[in-house]
Design brief:
309 residues; alpha/beta; Rossmann fold; 6-stranded parallel beta sheet; 10 helices; 13 strands
């Protein structure tokens, strides 16, 4: 068997904080790709993380991991961005946004020097706005700039519903759409198990929606950061892309006349395959859900406008 035409699959992860390294470790354990490259402004940190993972290769094998630089983005199938500043005491959301927008402008320009054909997967918060900025700065087609969106929120939603119903969350079909954040929308009208609508009181629904929306705050208050579940969500997106699955995932993409919303990145059910976001599924919402979804969009548009002013 000839290997002359063999092209290794490569994922580059920019940012070796908790989310970036946990994502790399998850991809390594599951052997999603043959090469994982870690890039960080603190190169020594990236070197240490790569070395630590390499010491485990005798237990898993089949993957090459190293600390690289932006030139290693060349030929990468997917570039995951988890880098960014964290919010400091007394700093407003817009202050943080402006700081991360500047960081992303630099990161994206460095990526596109070496890669114009890969898929950019954004995880840094506020993810919807930073995915929007990434698409504008990169000039990449919309399908190849993806935000992690409400995939994690939807997983939290399903977990809590499953806990309430004592049903495996993998059998729960329910989504959170809109912003990955405070204005997210729980789509109760389409939630079901095997085609059977969920029978729950309004009190139960409100409690589950509240706990879903505030899950990150609860975790951050308890241990300082969230990273395990988002790493698994990013792994799920990578798998859908690399295996050309055509899976439906609630990722963030640029919307055009979607339930009255245009020109903003929001999490909605999308078909994800080797091309990135192949299709945005038209979800029929109730009037109340549509109004909440539009309000979520307006909130993000306002923040983008403040960012640009």
């Amino acid at each position: 068997m000839t290997t002359d035409n063999f092209k290794p699959s490569r994922v580059v992860i920019i940012g070796t904080g908790a989310v970036g390294t946990t994502t790399a470790f998850t991809l390594l354990l599951r052997k999603r790709v043959s090469e994982i490259v870690l890039i960080d402004v603190n190169h020594d940190k990236a070197v240490g993380e790569a070395l630590d993972m390499n010491h485990g290769l005798p237990f898993v094998g089949g993957v090459t991991v190293w600390a690289g630089d932006y030139s290693d983005c060349k030929g990468a199938d997917i570039i995951i961005v988890t880098a960014g500043a964290s919010q400091k005491p007394g700093e407003t959301r817009i202050d943080l946004l402006k700081k991360n927008a500047a960081i992303f402008n630099d990161i994206v320009q460095n990526i596109t020097k070496y890669n114009k054909d890969g898929i950019l997967l954004i995880a840094t918060n506020p993810v919807d706005i930073l995915a929007y900025i990434t698409q504008k700065v990169s000039g990449f087609p919309v399908n190849r700039v993806i935000g992690s969106g409400t995939l994690l929120d939807s997983a939290r939603f399903r977990y809590l519903i499953g806990k309430n119903k004592n049903i495996d969350p993998r059998s729960i079909h329910a989504n959170i759409i809109g912003e990955h954040g405070d204005s997210e929308v729980a789509v109760w009208s389409l939630a079901h198990v095997a085609g059977v609508k969920l029978q729950m009181s309004e009190e139960e629904k409100n409690e589950i929606a509240y706990n879903t929306k505030n899950a990150a705050y609860e975790i951050i208050n308890a241990k300082g950061a969230t990273f395990y579940a988002i790493a698994m969500a990013l792994d799920r997106i990578v798998t859908a892309i690399m295996h050309d699955e055509s899976s439906v995932l609630t990722v963030s993409t640029l919307l055009k006349d979607y339930n009255g919303v245009s020109d903003v990145y929001l999490g909605v059910p999308c078909v994800v395959d080797r091309t990135g976001v192949r299709e945005v599924l038209d979800v029929h919402l109730t009037d109340e859900e549509t109004q909440l979804f539009q309000q979520s969009a307006e909130k993000l548009k306002s923040e983008i406008a403040n960012l640009q002013s």
